[in-house]
Design brief:
Oligomer: single chain
Shape: globular
Largest sheet: 9 strands, mixed
Structural class: alpha/beta
Number of strands: 19
CATH architecture of the largest domain: 3-Layer(aba) Sandwich
Distance between the termini: 35 Å
CATH class of the largest domain: Alpha Beta
Radius of gyration: 22 Å
Number of helices: 13
Amino acid sequence: MLPKDFSDYTATLFGDARWQRYLASFDEPTPISIRVNPFKVAYHRADDAMGGNACKPPTSSLPAIAPLLGRNVPWCRDAWWLSSRPQFTLDPLLHAGAYYVQEAGSMFLDTVLRQYVTSPITMLDLCAAPGGKSTLARAALPPGSLLFSNEPDRRRANILTENLIKQGHPDIIVTSNYARDYARSRLAFDVVLADVPCSGEGLFRRDNSTISEWSIQNVMKCQNLQREIVCDIWPSLKPGGLFIYSTCTFNTHEDEENILFICENLGAEILTVNTDPSWNISGSMMEGFDYPVYRFVPGMTASEGLFMCIMRKHGDISQDTPDKQRSIKQSRGLNIIYDGVPHPTYKGKAIIPDHAEALLIDRNDTYPCIELSLDEALAYLHHEAIILPPDAPRGYIIVTHCGMPLGFVKNLGTRANNLYPKEWAIRMAVV
């Protein structure tokens, strides 16, 4: 049961036809979509998201989900809808970082970045956990770019770090800070993505807890928090820099009204994104607000709810070549959790490799590799003992599945120590 105050407000906001389609979506299957990691999975791609239908799904590289791959998500070059939801947790290639499960609407960021970012930049994803938009951004940004991915909540930041490590790209720095902490650093960004905390109206179909937590009071509380976050991070955006504001809610208090606040009080112009009418993206729903915004409504688009607006900060554009080491020095005072570089553990004279090294897209050939069957790979991911071939070399070995690295084991001859991170181990039983 939807809250009455929400229904009364949103029915008027949407109009009857859109409101009826939205209500009907609750009785329809929830769309499932995945995004392939192009650094690990090779396939035929279109040149850009607008030509996405020319992409051929990577069926040979993803055997577990190949039978389910359907239409390409047209606003994201590397994404497809699935015909049904598989047991993702029991697919080793998910844990290897071959693909990411993500709402299709959130992938609209791919179209935005490919249109407006054409040379290497330094970008901040301010509220990044669990990592969907960060992993997408890193794939969409030009080579040579540097991504800061931030999450204030330390528990969620650990999940973010895990997902980014699995993607394997070295030019990522993960932090756990508040926006005001960034303002006190010497960092300045060409692009800032603020997917701000919100009332979650766009997730009602997927998450019943968001319905029970919704209230008009919480909507207004979110609006105030969102403005505070934007004001805190604004000094860290370069003049002429791109600011991407996003929520997963429908109401204009957290969406259009905040965009007006940013433009009038902080100084920004609203930009247009190239879209296709067939995508069924809704625009502004606030009377008197005639600027381009992008709203995904369940029932209209094959996605959960999303709002996005792209702005450019007033001032002359000054873009420096990204420099990772300089950026790390400038981030003094920030809590850096992961800097994209594996850090081995030293135990006496022994060197224990960092799990992240096995997953890097540009790792060297220091360690031998051994291919695991599906059952062996799942045992490894459950952090169980696995048996290696008798002729397997002693020492540290990278185990793979379908040619994709999963992590390290240490072969002692009589047994192999499973070095998969215990905190990452899957808990779901194999049926």
